[in-house]
Design goal:
The complex is a heterodimer. By secondary structure, chain A is mainly alpha-helical. Chain A contains 22 helices and ten strands. Chain B is α/β, with parallel strands linked by helices. In chain B, strand 5, helix 5 and strand 6 form a beta-alpha-beta unit. Classes of the chains: A mainly alpha, B alpha/beta.
């Protein structure tokens, strides 16, 4: 599952989401935000029957912690001890989360949501490494005249988000290294919610007190620290049904099943897990080598220096077509960065605004929101960006272009350029004489607001640097033409 | 066994070497001559792939000085950079002086004695590099050709132009120039006609008189001009031949431009006319663009096959070189040989030159007819248009487009079974050869480049046409695909 979610983020070809998109959609919080009743009901039933198996099998962050913990376990065996539930912390975080959710403090919600945290880590930390690897392959492909791989831009899209992802990564690795599932059982709000259901789960791990020799192996191998072998008690709110204890018990004293019935213990699928982990560790090492090799190569033409554009200051941020309105988007987006990772035109990047921290917004220094592309709307698991067709997109106004006369080439260089008008995909920009009395006066662009959809092509191709002479102002509410 | 070995010598090695070089990226690094060295002359004992022979160079006589000029002239416009690409692809490029020295030495050793440079070439560094390489040889071993490249109005004053000429002597470390050219007459500038520009550059400031004086003094041994563009200037200068006594004239000539220069740009003039005018007046012709910046070496596949099928042991480029060499009035043929492989290949062609017969020329004219049908853009990657003030990589965009035509990656029809593959190759190749912000969509159409282009390509128009094509591919729509 983790591999699939990770691949969903890493894929540069834009084809995998057809096959793997569901892995993001069955995540608890995205499904909740998308009001995906089928998934929510299924997850509730799953937990009521099997316990918090969601945390072991579906949640990529959970599996990630298991891998970290497993690596430590290789070096230091039997390292866990039973610990009491840290109620104040768990429920405190959950309360905070619910308050933030209701109050609309989206950055806090995004910060605590497990799938979002995982997405951020992959999009900010692993994706660049993967892309460098891809670019190396692309460079090799170029050498042998193959078009099997193509290069992609690698850049830090937002420093705050990058730093948050880095901090999350460090915290989670440290917690998992030291205490296994500490994060899941003290911080994760989804874990705490599912814990309430898991209390009553039909199947659970239970002791056969007659067979137990109090050897303590179960407790020492419980990454959730929820088994107390002395009292034969399992804290079901924290047990993620991983089955490690069952495997470690030499005396067949632990069973997974309905406590009253004599149910055969289910053998946890440990083997594929091993393979999965080995694969990930392997790719991480290969990725690191690749990144080093790539750093040495430089590409540029012997040409005029192109100054970087400074992103325009927009009063209203632009959200992608399909996001309905700024409000809808803010309420539904968990800032998982999947759309940011997927945007093939370098348009989406996480916001650095404290109000919308890490939630994506659009800007057009590296590309425009291309008319044929609806990538973000197809991958969004939470419904923050609703699925939209190319035809719908071309008639959805997400913003409108604004001309800044002071920056325009006609003012700065005395050159009539017209690049914005020439490239406008909807023909909303027209070149008109700068002096209405004089038809021969230099031509300047005029934006027909009624037709402009805010795709940013004009802003992208505007030659004025560093400040674009035409930029898109976002709309609070998207409109159909 | 013997048989096998024989075969391998004949064809196998050439092919495997080519594949090998291609894999190394040498063969594909530039649109220029493929890096194959084959000196097959039909003599089986020699076999292909040997080093070019010493002492076999074909020479032509300069009618005035009676000096022998090698039919192969070394063009110093496409010198190598230390990173293995032609100089000027990147702002960090450094001249590979060691390689330039080595190649110049090799060329001289094999009989090349004509070296053509200009103060404008290689971002202004060509003369110095040429001077360094040649200063290591005796002055009577080589002829230097350089130009008065006073293109921009701030160099039109008498003082600035004379300074430019004096600086050439200094950079080249010589006290006389063997061949001096008025550089690229026939170009227009903004609103000025080509004739007005010519007069501003050479007549109003008295510079042509100055150069004639220098010829009297022997500082310039031969005076001529290179021509591109408006035929009025060419005709004017030749009409005044009695007055100026041109010792040579440099023209663009190859089997495509012989009859088809006009078809690309109506204002251009066919080489057939230019050569005939010189021939009529007994003026030696120095030939530039014999290979059109490599375009005649990397032909569309069916044409490449056609030429190779005639003689698998000759390279495609060698046909273009033999073609121009076959005209008796040609003094020397300039080739911008970036790599040692280019040099060796051309030496093989010209040591000695086997002239084409009429039937072979007709064969090439047939190829030319077909090239015209492919609608390539006549860009020879000379970089005169660069740098574009708005950062566009003009030659990069145009050569990518041409390359796609040559490789069959230009598709006009979405129902073409090959459409998906060709689309991918075009778009991915586009991003690879030109960074996004330097692509055609960023051309604002200011037109500042147009007057610099010796081929008179309507660059803004072509940029828009290519961008429309790219848009059609990206959106998967028909509109723009036919462009």
């Amino acid at each position: 599952m983790m591999v699939m979610v990770t691949l969903l983020f890493l894929d540069v070809s834009g084809t995998l989401h057809h096959f793997l998109g569901w892995t993001a959609r069955i995540q608890f919080l995205p499904a909740l935000l998308a009001l995906n009743v089928v998934v929510i009901v299924a997850l509730v039933l799953l937990t009521l029957i099997f316990g918090r198996i969601y945390c072991s099998v579906i949640c990529p962050l959970g599996i990630f912690q298991d891998i970290v913990s497993w690596i430590h376990g290789k070096r230091k065996k039997n390292r866990f001890t039973a610990s009491p539930e840290k109620r104040w912390l768990r429920y405190g975080v959950l309360a905070l989360f619910i308050i933030a959710f209701i109050a609309g403090i989206h950055s806090l919600v995004a910060l605590l949501a497990p799938y979002s945290s995982y997405g951020r880590m992959v999009a900010n930390l692993l994706l660049p490494v993967y892309q460098w690897g891809n670019n190396l392959l692309a460079a090799i492909a170029e050498r042998v005249d193959s078009y099997a791989f193509y290069g992609v831009d690698v850049w830090i899209k937002s420093l705050p988000t990058f730093l948050i992802a880095l901090a999350t990564f460090i915290i989670i690795v440290v917690l998992a290294w030291r205490g296994g599932r500490t994060y899941c059982n003290t911080i994760c709000p989804v874990g705490t919610i599912l814990a309430q259901l898991a209390r009553f789960s039909w199947l659970k791990v239970y002791f056969d007190a007659d067979k137990c020799k109090s050897c303590s192996m179960c407790t020492k191998n419980c990454k959730a620290s929820c088994i107390d072998f002395t009292t034969h008690k399992v804290d079901y709110t924290r047990c993620v049904a991983c089955g490690n204890c069952l495997e470690k018990c030499k005396f067949d004293a632990l069973h997974y099943g309905h406590p009253k019935a004599a149910v055969q213990p289910i053998q946890p699928a440990e083997k594929p897990d091993d393979a999965r982990r080995a694969f990930l560790v392997g790719t991480a090492i290969v990725g690191a080598d690749v990144a080093l090799a790539q750093a040495a190569k430089k590409v540029d033409g012997g040409l005029a220096v192109i100054e970087d554009k400074v992103p325009a200051k927009r009063t209203t941020p632009i959200t992608p077509p399909g996001s309905v309105s700024a409000k809808h988007f803010a309420q539904h987006c968990t800032a998982c960065q999947l759309c940011v990772a997927k945007c093939p035109n370098g348009v989406l990047r996480p916001s650095s605004d404290p109000q919308r921290l890490m939630q994506p917004e659009m800007s057009f220094e590296r590309g425009a929101c291309r008319p044929e592309c609806v990538e973000c709307s197809t991958v969004c698991p939470t419904g923050a960006i609703k699925p939209i067709t190319v035809a719908q997109k071309s008639s959805t106004m997400i913003g409108h272009a604004v001309w800044v006369k002071e920056n325009c080439l006609i003012t700065t260089d005395g050159v009539s350029c017209g690049n914005c008008a020439r490239h406008c995909p909807v023909g909303a920009i027209m070149m008109v004489p700068s002096n209405s009395e004089d038809d021969t006066s230099p031509m300047v662009p005029a934006v027909n607001i009624a037709m402009c959809i805010g795709c940013g092509t004009c802003e992208y191709v505007c030659p004025s640097r560093p400040y674009s002479a035409i930029f898109v102002e976002g709309h609070e509410m998207h409109k159909e033409i | 066994m013997n048989n096998d070995k024989h075969n391998e010598n004949k064809v196998g090695k050439t092919l495997s070497r080519r594949t090998f070089l291609k894999a190394l990226g040498l063969g594909t690094a530039t649109a220029a001559v493929p890096a194959i060295v084959s000196c097959a002359t039909g003599d089986d004992k020699k076999g292909p792939q040997q080093e070019p022979p010493v002492g076999k160079m074909t020479y032509r006589e300069n009618p005035k000085t009676k000096e022998k000029v090698s039919i192969l002239g070394y063009g110093m416009m496409r010198l190598p950079a230390t990173n293995g690409t032609p100089f000027g692809r990147s702002n960090d490029d450094k001249m590979d002086q060691d390689m330039i020295n080595k190649q110049v030495d090799y060329a001289i050793e094999h009989g090349v004695n004509y070296f053509d440079t200009s103060p404008a070439y290689c971002m202004g560094l060509s003369e110095r590099a040429t001077g360094i390489a040649l200063s290591r040889h005796k002055r009577d071993e080589f002829f230097i050709a350089t130009k008065l490249s006073n293109f921009t109005p701030d160099t039109w004053s008498r003082a600035a132009s004379i300074e430019m000429f004096q600086n050439s002597l200094k950079e080249l470390q010589v006290d006389y120039i063997d061949y001096l050219l008025l550089h690229s007459v026939g170009g227009s500038f903004n609103e000025m006609t080509a004739m007005e520009v010519f007069e501003s550059r050479y007549i109003d400031n008295g510079i042509l008189d100055y150069l004639l004086e220098q010829r009297e003094k022997g500082v310039i041994r031969n005076l001529g001009f290179s021509y591109h563009g408006d035929i009025a200037v060419f005709d004017h200068l030749l009409a005044n031949h009695d007055k100026y006594k041109w010792d040579f004239v440099q023209i663009e000539m190859n089997y495509l431009d012989w009859k088809h220069a006009k078809e690309f740009e109506p204002e251009n003039t066919n080489a057939e006319y230019l050569y005939a005018e010189l021939d009529k007046r007994n003026i030696p012709a120095v030939i530039m663009e014999p290979l059109l910046g490599g375009r005649l070496a990397s032909l569309p596949k069916p044409l490449a096959r056609k030429i190779m099928a005639r003689d698998p042991q000759r390279t495609i480029a060698s046909w273009a070189f033999r073609y121009v060499g076959s005209f008796p009035r040609v003094l020397t043929v300039l080739s911008g040989m970036t790599y040692m492989e280019h040099l060796k290949e051309n030496l093989c062609t010209y040591c000695p030159l086997e002239e084409l017969n009429d039937e072979e020329k007709e064969f090439l004219y047939g190829v030319a007819e077909e090239i015209v049908g492919y609608n390539t853009i006549p860009c020879n990657d000379c970089k005169y248009c660069m740098p574009c003030p708005y950062g566009i990589d003009i030659p990069g965009v145009l050569t990518h487009y041409n390359k796609c035509i040559a490789e069959g990656n230009l598709t006009r029809d979405r129902n073409d079974p090959d459409y998906a593959r060709a689309r991918k190759a075009f778009l991915i190749g586009y991003d690879r050869s030109v960074p996004k912000l330097r692509q055609a969509d960023h051309c604002i159409g200011c037109g500042q480049c147009v007057s610099h282009c010796p081929q008179r390509i309507q660059i803004p128009r072509e940029m828009q046409r290519i961008n429309n094509y790219v848009e059609a591919l990206k959106r998967n729509i028909d509109r723009g695909l036919e462009a």
